[in-house]
Amino acid sequence: MASWVDHAIWWHVYPLGFTGAESTAQPHDAPVRHRLRQLEPWLDYVLELGCSGLMLGPVFASETHGYDTVDHFKIDPRLGDDEDFDRLIAAARDRGLRIVLDGVFNHVGRGFPVFARATGPNPDPDAARWFRRLPANDATGGAADEAEDGATGSVEPDYATFEGHHRLVALNHEEPAVLDHVAKVMIHWLDRGVSGWRLDAAYAMPARFWHEVLALVRPHHPDAWFVGEMIHGEYAAYVAESGLDSVTEYELWKAIWSSLNDGNLFELAWTLKRHDDLLGDFTPLTFVGNHDVTRLASRLADERHLGHALAVLFTVGGVPSVYYGDEQAFRGIKEDRVGGDDEIRPAFPARPDDLAPHGLPAYRLHQRLIALRRRHPWLVRARTTSEHLTNLTVALTSTAGNDGAGNGEAGNGGVENGEAGNGGGEGRGPRIVTLLNIGDEPYRFPVETEGLTIEETSATSHPGDPALVPAHGWTVLSDR
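RESULT FIELD:
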């Protein structure tokens, strides 16, 4: 991994939603809308939040939501043009902010020019090889499946689609021309000033494809960062075979909110053990919200546990990402229907001063915990163990990661008092202890706090005992 990533904390933005762009591409003769410039007034906000860069959703010409790309070399006219993109890159660079782009290379929109050549009146066989084909009677992803608008794709029934979405045609990653195209796209925008790529739907693509692509790209940009979207699968194995730097850590995302909702912090402890194992191989991209999931503030059953989720995110290993609006406690529920993402991809006002004041407490909380993270940059590769664990309480100790660090396993104790091994973190350098209490009563953790001081806490006035945490409260201790 490139060294600058060790200090990266991303503000993840979905540009088409953020800027209030039209939901579908405009006619070819429609004027370019220079909406990318709307991001510029927010760059100082990103700095003040404590983030070090923007992770942008799709910005390339597409038919609707950005994931149905039709031109990887063109900025979507609903967002702007090359000049607008260069302005944003320059403005970000002036502030020391980096930008990562979203690359959708598993599939394209049906308006992609090569697909038009493959399916036109005189089909081009070279173009046809760009796309993955299925038997005509295959019901697992062919274009003959019912389209989202109710129509049926009958022109080319043997072309695969992405997860049955008629408008998303799957690329053939065995085709050398596709590999060459993807490498050229990535190099083009890295040359233009971006620092890396988020690779959409990597889980649906063969890992060896990325190994071959990166062999072409890395010699031109050895410091670039490449992170794949992995919802499921064997994360470490995919990273090893693909050569990617990172993948998205959906296991941790799920464990954070569901353990808080279910009153089952054993789930969190178990997942953090798996997370530690991953950190031995690579540094995952961690998050508690993104453009594809219900917002954290809507997902949590008890709004008092927002700080608990963030305390975990910012005190365990990984490269953290904050989804725009989460830092303002925006709400939004993802629904499995056409337009079901709209609520989680809203427009932002013109300037930060126009935000509603009720989001300020969540913003300040994010600021505090991001600042803690920046004070302890070693946390990027920290190993985290459970020193004490019950259903409703957990003491997480994070220490500087190294191959010899212990991995204390969560115990199998009873509901009320299941202890966990402490992993032997003491005496191994800096230490962060995160105490979470989601119970209805104050709780004094039976952990050693000598040498530790309270660095952050949910309490407006703390009782003074660093091991005593109020009901539904949390505390972060450090030996700084």
